[in-house]
Amino acid sequence: MSDSILALWYATLNVIGIRVSETKRILFLDKIQSMYKSEVSFLFGSARSALYSLLRSLEFGEQDEVIITGFTCDVVPNAIIQAGFQPVYADINPTNYGMSPSSFKSKITPKTKAVVIQHTFGIPCDIKSLLEIAKKHSLFVIEDCAVSLGTKYNGQLTGTFGDAAIFSFELSKTITSCRGGLLTINNGNMMAVEKVTQFYESNVPEQENKYRIKTLMQLGLSGLFYHPRFLPVGKYLIAAMFKIKLFIFSTSQKEKRAQLPKNYLHRLSEEQCVILSRQWEQLPAIIEQSKVNSLYYISNCSEMLNYEFIEYVKKHEINMIRFPLIVKRRDDIVRSFRKESLDIGLWFTAPISSNNTNQEIFGYTKGQCPVSEIVCDEIINLPVHSRVKISDMDKLIARL
Q1: Nearest to 102 by CA among 78, 74, 140, 132
Q2: Based on the domain organization, do 182 and 289 belong to the same domain?
Q3: Of 136, 148, 133, which Cα lies nearest the Cα of 184?
Q4: Running along the chain, 400 residues long, what does each successive block of 10 average in pLDDT?
Q5: How far is CA 2 from CA 16, 240, 281, 297, in A?
Q6: At which of 184, 203, 222 does a domain end?
Q7: Which of 145, 175, 203 is the last residue of a domain?
Q8: What is the rounded distance in angstroms from the CA atom of residue 292 to the CA atom of residue 280?
Q9: Phi then psi for 267, rounded to 5 degrees?
Q10: Domain range enclosing 316
Q11: Contact 177, 146 (CB under 8 A)
C-alpha cells in the first residue's frame, strides 16, 4: 500500500473514531535515536513549533537575542519572536548559503544567548568555525536541519554537532507526513533535556481530531495529485482543495504577520509516525538519488557554478533537497519554466522568505545582510528528488 493510500485510509478510520496503536510514536523515535544518538527526541506538529518550544523551555531573559541566518523562511524568526526573544540576522557565505562565520561573530552582543545554524538546501554550513565562535561566547547552538536530513559534514551527521537540532517533515521535505517536526537534544545537555521534557509534557497536546483528519487527507491527496502521471490535472485539483480549505497552507497568514496561529503547538500523530517510519526505511535510497541528481547538475551546469561551491559539495556527503543556481535574467527564466510547468523553486527572493514578506515586522532592515540580498535577486533552485528523470533535468538545464 502506498503512503498516499495509507494516509487516506487512516483519515477514513479517524472519521469513524478508530486510531492506530499508541506505540507507533515510540517506535519511530527508536529509529531516530538509533541514527542520531541524541540524549532525547521529541515529535511535534512542525519544526517551527519544535524551535518555539525549545526556546520557551530555555527561559532566556526578556528580549534576549537569537542569531539566525539572513536567508531563511519567515517561520524561523516568528518562532523566536513568539517565544519572547529577538531575532538578529547574520549574513551568508555564498559558497554554501549558510551563515558566514565573520558576520556571525560581528552580531554577538551581551544579550545574545543562542544561535540557529541553518543547513540551507541541505548543504552543511561551516559548522567547525561557527561552533568555535559559539563556544567562545557560551552560546546555545541549535542546528536547523529542516532540509538536511541525512547530510554529513566531515563524515558526521548534521544535527549532531550542536546542543539541539530541529528537523521538518513538511510536504516539500526529504520524507513527509504533510506537516511535522522533530527536536533532538544532544551532547549530554541534561538541563535542556529536563526543561524541554517538562514543557513538552505540560504544554504540547495531541492533535485535535478535525485537524488530524484534514492533515491525513492532505497528505494522501497531495501524494496522488503531485504524481507525475496526474500532475497536469492534479495541479488544478490541488488549487481547488486550497480554495475550499480542505488543504491548509504550510505557513498561515498569522505567521506571515509575525503572530501565533491556532493549532501551532501539538504533537505528531501516531498515524503520521507510521507513514514516516515507512519512508525512513527508504532514506538511504532517497539520499543516494539526491546525490546522483545533484552531481548531474554539477556536471552539466559547471560553467554557471562557483568553483568553491563545487568543491564544497563534493567534499561532504550531502542530501541536497533542492539544487541552487545563481542566474542572470531570472525573471525571463522563471516565465519560461512556468510556461512549460517545469519545476523551479525560488528560495529565497528576500532575506526572509520573499519580497511579499514584510521584512521589518520580523526585525530585518535593508542592508543588514548585503550578500544575502544580492543572492536573493538572482537565485533559483531545481529538483533533485527521486521522481525527477534525466530527461526532466535536461529540459531544465536547456532553459538556463
Answers
A1: 132
A2: no
A3: 148
A4: 90 95 93 94 98 95 95 98 97 97 98 98 98 97 97 97 97 95 88 93 96 95 76 78 88 95 95 97 95 96 94 95 94 84 89 96 97 97 91 90
A5: 22, 23, 14, 30
A6: 203
A7: 203
A8: 19
A9: -90, 155
A10: 283-398
A11: no
DSSP-derived secondary structure for 330-349:
HHHHHHHHHHTT---B---S
Task: Classify the C-alpha dihedral 87-81-348-161 as positive or negative.
Answer: positive
3-state DSSP percent of the chain in helix, strand and coil, to 5: 45, 15, 40
Determine whether 265 is exposed, middle or buried from the number of CB atoms within 10 Å of its CB (0-12, 13-18, 19+).
Answer: buried
Together in a domain, 120 and 19: yes
| Residue keyed to cell 488549487 | 239
CA distance 224 to 3: 10
Partner residues linked to 86 by β-bridges: 65
Give the C-alpha separation, 194 to 41, whole Å. Answer: 12
Does the model's pTM come out above 0.90? yes
Q: Based on the structure, what is the number of domains in the chain?
A: 2
Domain with residue 184: its CATH number is 3.40.640.10
